[in-house]
Amino acid sequence: MALAEGESTGSGVGGGGSTGSRIDSPEGVITALQKIADWMLTVFMVLAVIFILLAAFKYLTSKGGDGVKDAHKMILYAVVAVAVAILAPGIVNLVEAFLK
């Protein structure tokens, strides 16, 4: 089936097939990067909370020894996830500055 003029196949970024989601200009790249950064912020923050809760549980149930070391590592990974999430919007701003 052939597409009429102006019809979309629905394969644009975001899946909706809307023309506003295409990456055909520097502004489109910036918009896509901002969406990715927003998702990264959400995902990494959720993962950080989960890791902190798991680390706290492991710390409380470890009875000392290697469990405490593992809990400290998990908390460190959670802090790294938070740092990446906080830096993600800054990376988008950096790319935006280079494109302008």
Write a brief structural summary.
With 100 residues, the chain is an all-alpha fold. It has one domain. The protein has helices at 26-61, 66-99.
Please give a structural write-up.
The protein is built from two helices and no strands. The mean pLDDT is 77. It is an all-alpha fold and 100 residues long. Helix content is 70%, strand content 0%. The protein starts with 25 loop residues before the first helix and ends with a helix. Helix 1 runs antiparallel to helix 2. It has one domain.
Strand content: under 5%
Question: What is the domain total for the residues?
Answer: 1
Total number of strands: 0
Broad structural category: mainly alpha
How large is the radius of gyration?
A: 21 Å
Shape: elongated
How many helix segments? 2
Low-confidence stretches: none
Distance between the termini: 41 Å
Strand and helix order: HH
Mean pLDDT: 77
| Largest sheet, strands/sense/barrel | none
* Percentage of residues in helical conformation: over 70%
Secondary-structure map with pairings?
Blueprint: H1 26-61, H2 66-99
Features:
70% helix, 100 residues, mainly alpha, 0% strand, 2 helices
